[in-house]
Amino acid sequence: MLPLFPPFPLGPTTPRSPYETSHTATQRSALTLWEFELLHHWILDVADSFDVSPGFHRAWRDQAIRAALQHEYLLHVILVLSALHLALTDSPSFTDRHRGLIVRGCSDAMATFRKEAEHVTEVNCHALMAFAFLVSVYAFALAQFDRADHHDHHCSHQPPPPPHRVDQDQEHKQQEQNILDETIGTLVLIKGTVVVGDSTKPLAEASGRPWVANADILAPPLGESASPSEDQDLHRALEDLQAWIDHAARGRGSGKHQGEEGGGPPTPTPRPITTTTSHQALRLLRETLAANLRSNLRPFAWPCTLDENYLDLLRARDPTALLILAHYAVILVQCRAQWWCAGWGARVIAGVAELLPEGLAGPLAYPLHVIGRG
């Protein structure tokens, strides 16, 4: 697994006078020709590839570049994302030098960012917000870098063919564990950016110079993500999952396991603390889906709401937590045309299917259907 960043979350941040400048800000006086080429690629190709709205694109083409030239940490993550875009879109321009930039990671940039985030000002608030968003994109993209089959998943969300030999099967199961661990790491990273948003958003709004307006990030009333029918199907699937969790909890209270009445294998029933945490995570997933964000921003919404209890359940491979994650992954599948997302949603769903105990085909039916395994 390639290097990400030092751990989030950040400590409390302290807004400073708008007339002060950050003592940690670093300004680039010149770019190398190679860096300029990557920045040019960002402006022409990467910014528009987010496919959100014209105002959103302008922000990343214009304001982000101006801020990046004033803040080295933001410039670095933009250059790395440009290199990742070349890699994941199979560009013939991708070279070993780009690979080296990606492999070196963003630890130095994150260290500088953390220092600057301790003192938020009107001068640095936009750059801090931009960096927080871009590292979330980076986390999804990096997880797919150098995977042997990313070419297939870029155009298709079908899962890879099952291995046949025993050693291949063991390797496959370990890969599914790794995918889940990388997904948890991405969720943790996105969750950590909330701290930055809470401290920077008031100053950004007070500055009177917001990069994007609400209309740039909110979808029209009927949504433009997935089709409305796909949204309706996902809403129904979440309702069904809620009913399954409730039924499983009642079965636990009566001492009867789900599956016993129909003669099938007994399925695990959530413990009380698990049920409470799962209820909250599922409720928040439904609420973020109802927030009507533009489709390619949806993957970043739910992780911002998660608490450590749910993440601990995922780390423990709790079946209910895994089922909720699989339904979240449907949102990733809806974004599969995005280079930074591509086949990751299908991988997560297939991984959950491998890791779940027997008897849970019912509540996993919709995610499996979405990736063509239903």
TrEMBL record:
Annotated region (Disordered), positions in chain: 1-22, 151-175, 251-273
InterPro entries on file: Fun_TF (IPR021858), Sterol_Uptake_Regulator (IPR053157)
Organism: Aspergillus violaceofuscus (strain CBS 115571)
An annotated Gene Ontology molecular function: DNA-binding transcription activator activity, RNA polymerase II-specific
Comp. bias intervals (Basic and acidic residues): 164-175
Protein name stated in the entry: Uncharacterized protein
Biased composition (Pro residues): 1-12
Domain of life: Eukaryota
Pfam family name, one: Fungal_trans_2
